[in-house]
Write a sequence for this structure.
């Protein structure tokens, strides 16, 4: 008789138990409460020495900005031997998928770059450090001269969560060369939609595939431009309380009617529509486009360096409007925020570095003497962070070292458009308005009233959902 | 023990198969970590909301939100359009290419490599190539059309939502070119297992090419065809990278926006506060739809085999 016991437990049962255990393990892990705060940062403080990680450093693929950033870090660290800056280099500072994942995991750098529209996301993720007590005119000498609308983008209630370092408003980018060839005055860009129409017709008559005006209508950029154009025309995209769409009115109708007329009556726009960001810059660089809406950095960051444009060929006027005086402009920019896990010493170090690198006239990004020596563009009206005495000093220094003719942007600068930020749930709104822009630019019989009404209903639904 | 059989104790049995159990455990761990855990986590997240870092129960509000999203139904319609077009083009074409390859007497190996070559390209590279081909202003396809005095197209950027859209057809062409090689080789292997005597007998009975395909080739490869059909439908319903690289994902007027792209948008792009919970809810909806479809398909095909 064998000593083996007869057991019901067999191979199948073991396998079944193993599978069940694995499934159970997965379920238990998944059901555990999510913790989005990481206590392990990628910086440390020991014995009074502070190390902070800062992203948005230019990558080595942009050799000159990369060199300048590293020089600035070296200067700062020499002046502050107890602080070490760990730079994170990236071509694109805020990649949405990566940014969101980092916030979820709590692994964002100590000092991380954001767009103004990211504030709610960072707050919701519980990753934003309150830096109110660390920022004042002592720690950031130019703080009181930074325009309030820019500070508002990093403030919730009375709590400060970040420091702005870039901002922009939009205007009308013009091809001065085409203006001259068409017999127009490039120093006097159009300011009303009626004038845009006349100038666009004149430029289109040059032929050879040249069109007077260009517009976006896909990948959310159509809606983005529509927002800016409505702002300039005295309208707004959503109500002040952010609950209802408010572009379905005379201001919105006028913008779409102007575009529709340009496209189908005047034939001053290309028959190829459904364009997104990047395409109009290429056309401008190739000398095939007379005008389009953009911020100044489109010229010095894209058209000139990437699309082969000649910097002297471009200028800017204010956003077109029915009145000729833009009521405002969609605005944006860049900010630095601080991770929730940062120690007070790290926050102080980060504030000090940002003040040096980004908010001091003559230093860091405003070291215009070095920029000129390094053949980088100087003299474009962006950013427009300052007011008062700081702005006076800033303008004087920029003019002294300008590599472009500031007169090319005179009417844009003089318009001093009020920055209106972006609407609530901006990307969802832009996405909903893209088809409206596309219909207006591709359908000769487009019913603007009906299009706007339908879009408004959809936007109301979106705003109600996001409550 | 007298009479009957008895099973050995589990200990020695496990010991004899220790490496097999080890591999099994490793595989289960991988599935648990990278497949089941994310699935369970996603389901739970779809019923939660996060505010100021605090996660709480949200009931069905995420589901209500996505069902009320104006682009929700657009994304489903576009996804079904892609699936149907991909079936017409991407299911039939590899099968007939395999039949053709099977009939060839020369350069078989070379042609098989050629057919499979696009599959070996990283998808992003292949799609970037097509993005250049499709560029309305500078692309190769429009240049060729221009030289031939034919009307050009905006390809993946063509506006319009009337089915089938040129935008979606362009995406399907690129996707089929990229992926047909694998299916072709699988069909080829299946075709080569069909006994030659069946074709000889059919020839003796006077059957032509199409009758042979209809009465011999298709029935003999029915199992492979049905499996690949299921896999193709499940894969094409999850279309994302093709449209994302070719035209940013949405296309003109959202006419190439797919369900998975909408998930991506919910998670990363659509609002100031990114919404993993809405993305999870839509992911669960997609999971349910594909599960129901797969279950029904398998049940139907199982019935037929009986």
């Amino acid at each position: 008789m064998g000593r083996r016991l007869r057991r019901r437990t067999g191979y199948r049962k073991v396998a079944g138990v193993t599978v069940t255990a694995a499934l159970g393990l997965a379920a238990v892990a998944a059901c555990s409460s999510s913790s989005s705060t990481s206590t392990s940062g990628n910086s440390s403080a020991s014995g009074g020495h502070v190390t902070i990680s800062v992203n948005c450093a230019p990558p080595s693929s942009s050799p000159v900005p990369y060199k300048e950033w590293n020089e600035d870090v070296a200067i700062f660290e020499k002046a502050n031997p107890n602080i070490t800056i760990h730079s994170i280099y990236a071509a694109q500072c805020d990649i949405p998928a990566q940014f969101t994942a980092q916030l979820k995991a709590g692994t964002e750098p100590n000092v991380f770059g954001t767009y103004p529209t990211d504030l709610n996301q960072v707050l919701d993720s519980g990753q934003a450090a309150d830096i109110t007590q660390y920022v004042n005119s002592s720690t950031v000498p130019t703080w009181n001269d930074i325009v309030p609308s820019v500070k508002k983008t990093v403030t919730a209630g009375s709590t400060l969560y970040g420091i702005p370092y870039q901002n922009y408003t939009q205007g009308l980018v013009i091809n001065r060369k085409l203006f001259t060839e068409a017999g127009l005055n490039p120093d006097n860009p159009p300011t009303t939609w009626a004038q845009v129409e006349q100038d666009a017709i004149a430029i289109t008559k040059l032929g050879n595939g040249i069109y007077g005006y260009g517009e976006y209508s896909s990948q959310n950029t159509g809606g983005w431009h529509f927002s800016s154009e409505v702002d300039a025309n005295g309208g707004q995209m959503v109500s002040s309380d952010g609950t209802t769409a408010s572009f379905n009115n005379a201001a919105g109708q006028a913008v779409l009617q102007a575009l529709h007329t340009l496209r189908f009556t005047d034939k001053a726009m290309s028959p190829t529509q459904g364009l997104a960001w990047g395409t109009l810059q290429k056309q401008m660089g190739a000398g095939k486009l007379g005008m389009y809406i953009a911020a100044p950095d489109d010229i010095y960051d894209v058209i000139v360096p990437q699309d082969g444009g000649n910097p002297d060929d471009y200028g800017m006027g204010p956003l077109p409007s029915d009145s000729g005086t833009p009521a405002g402009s969609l605005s944006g920019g860049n900010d630095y925020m601080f991770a929730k896990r940062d120690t007070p010493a790290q926050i102080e170090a980060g504030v000090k570095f940002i003040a040096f690198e980004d908010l001091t006239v003559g230093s860091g990004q405003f070291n215009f003497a070095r920029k000129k020596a390094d053949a980088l563009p100087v003299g474009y009206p962006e950013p427009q962070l300052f007011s008062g005495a700081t702005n006076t000093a800033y303008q004087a220094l920029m003019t002294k070292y300008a590599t472009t003719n500031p007169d090319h942007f005179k009417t844009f600068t003089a318009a001093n458009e009020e920055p209106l930020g972006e609407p609530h749930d901006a990307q969802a709104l832009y996405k909903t308005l893209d088809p409206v822009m596309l219909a207006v630019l591709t359908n000769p019989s487009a019913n603007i009233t009906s299009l706007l009404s339908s879009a408004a209903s959809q936007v109301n639904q979106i705003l109600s959902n996001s409550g | 023990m007298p009479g009957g059989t008895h099973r050995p104790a589990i200990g020695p049995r496990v010991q004899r198969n220790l490496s097999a159990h080890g591999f099994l455990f490793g595989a289960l761990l991988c599935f648990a970590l990278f497949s089941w855990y994310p699935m369970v986590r996603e389901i739970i997240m779809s019923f939660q909301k996060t505010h100021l870092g605090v996660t709480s129960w949200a009931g069905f509000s995420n589901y209500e939100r996505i069902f009320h999203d104006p682009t929700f139904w657009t994304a489903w319609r576009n996804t079904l359009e892609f699936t149907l077009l991909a079936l017409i083009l991407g299911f039939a074409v590899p099968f007939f290419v395999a039949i053709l390859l099977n009939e060839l007497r020369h350069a078989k190996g070379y042609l098989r490599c050629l057919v499979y070559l696009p599959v070996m390209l990283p998808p992003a590279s292949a799609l970037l190539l097509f993005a250049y081909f499709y560029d309305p202003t500078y692309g190769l396809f429009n240049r060729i059309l221009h030289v031939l005095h034919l009307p050009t197209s905006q390809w993946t950027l063509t506006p319009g939502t009337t089915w089938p859209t040129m935008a979606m057809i362009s995406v399907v062409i690129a996707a089929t070119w990229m992926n047909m090689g694998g299916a072709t080789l699988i069909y080829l292997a299946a075709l080569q297992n069909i006994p030659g005597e069946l074709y000889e007998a059919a020839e003796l009975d006077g059957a032509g090419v199409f009758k042979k395909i209809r009465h011999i080739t298709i029935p003999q490869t029915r199992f492979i065809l049905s499996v690949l059909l299921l896999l193709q439908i499940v894969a094409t319903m999850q279309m994302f990278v093709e449209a994302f690289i070719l035209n940013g994902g949405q296309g003109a007027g959202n006419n190439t926006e797919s369900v998975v792209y909408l998930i991506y948008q919910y998670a990363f792009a659509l609002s100031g506060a990114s919404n993993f919970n809405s993305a999870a809810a839509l992911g669960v909806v997609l999971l349910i739809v594909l599960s129901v479809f797969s279950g029904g398909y398998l049940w139907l095909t199982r019935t037929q085999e009986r």
Observations:
- Chain B has two domains: 10-45, 61-305.
